[in-house]
Amino acid sequence: MTGPDTPDAASPMPWTQRELQRLLDVRPDGAGRYIAPAHGPTERNVVEAGQLLGAAVAAAAKEVPGQRVTSASMIFSRVAEHEAPLEIATETLRSGRTFTTAQIRIGQHGEMCCAGMVLLDAGAADLVRAAEPIPHVTPPERLRPMAIPGTEVDGRDIRVVDDAYDPDPQRTGPPELYVWTRFRDAPEHDHLHAALLTQSITHWTVAAALRPHPGFGEAMAHRSISTGITMATITFHDDADVTDWLLYATRATYTGRGHAQGEGRVHTRDGRLAASYTVHAMLRGFRTPGAAASATAL
C-alpha cells in the first residue's frame, strides 16, 4: 500500500495524525470482522496497547452504529507488530435497546494478541450530574511542547506539566503526570475522536510509577528494564473534541512485585470529565542479557 504517508519500504514510516487515524479507522472484512492496516517499518516493531484498545473502540462503534461506546477493557497477552495488519473479530454477546455487550479479539499471524469487552449504550438524559473537578495545573499555553525523540507525531501537540516526562532517571517526583494533548485536524467521525483519545491513555503509567525512584526512568524502558502494558480500561463520560486541549491526569497507585497500577482521568479544557481509565503494566528487570531484543511476548 502506498500513499502520502508511505515512503520506500526500507525507510521507517513517519508518525503523523493522518497515519494514526488510518491505523485506528478499522475497515470491515466480513461479518463481525475488521482489519487494521499495517503501519510499516519502525525503530521498535511493537504496536502500543493504546493503539490496540483504540482500534477495538472503533471496531465496536462500527459494529453497533446505533449506540455509543461507553467502556472498553482489554488484556494484552502477546506483542503485535507494526509491519503486519491486525485482524479484529467482534462478537455481540447481548444486544439490547439500552446496552450492548461485545467481545473483541485482536490477532496477527493466526495468534491472538489481546482480547476484551466493550459496553455500548443508547444514551440517556441526566438524572443527576457530578464529576471530579479538573486539577489545578499549569495551562498548556505556558508549557513547551514535548520533544523527546521517538514521541513526536506530526499533527499532535503534547505538553507535560513541569516537564515531568523526563529522560533523566535521576530526576524524581511524585508518582503522577499531568499531560495536555491536542490534535491539529478534526477527525471526520465521532469514533475517531474516541479512538485518538484512547490511544494516549497507556503512555503515562510506567513513567509515573518510576518517577519517585532515583536511577530509574521511562527512557530505560525496553532497554535496561522490561516494561509493557498488560491491561487497560477506559470509560467514556462526556463528549470530547481531540482538537481542543485535553488534560490526562495519571497517578500510579501501586508499584511493586514486577507490576505497576495506574489510574487517570481525561478532562476537557473547560473542565468537563471526558473519560477515566486504569492501566496495569509489567515493570521488571530483564531475565537474561539481550532479552530486550529477542522478547516476542509479554
UniProtKB/TrEMBL annotation:
Organism superkingdom: Bacteria
Family stated for the protein in its record: Belongs to the C/M/P thioester hydrolase family.
Listed InterPro entries: ACOT8-like_C, Acyl-CoA_hotdog, Acyl_CoA_thio, HotDog_dom_sf, TesB_ACOT8-like_N
Alphabetical keyword list: Hydrolase
Protein name in UniProt: Acyl-CoA thioesterase
One GO molecular-function entry: fatty acyl-CoA hydrolase activity
Keyword Hydrolase: yes
One BP term from GO: acyl-CoA metabolic process
Stretches assigned to the Acyl-CoA thioesterase-like C-terminal domain: 156-276
Keyword RNA-binding: no
Acyl-CoA thioesterase-like N-terminal HotDog domain span: 49-117
Source organism: Nocardia mexicana
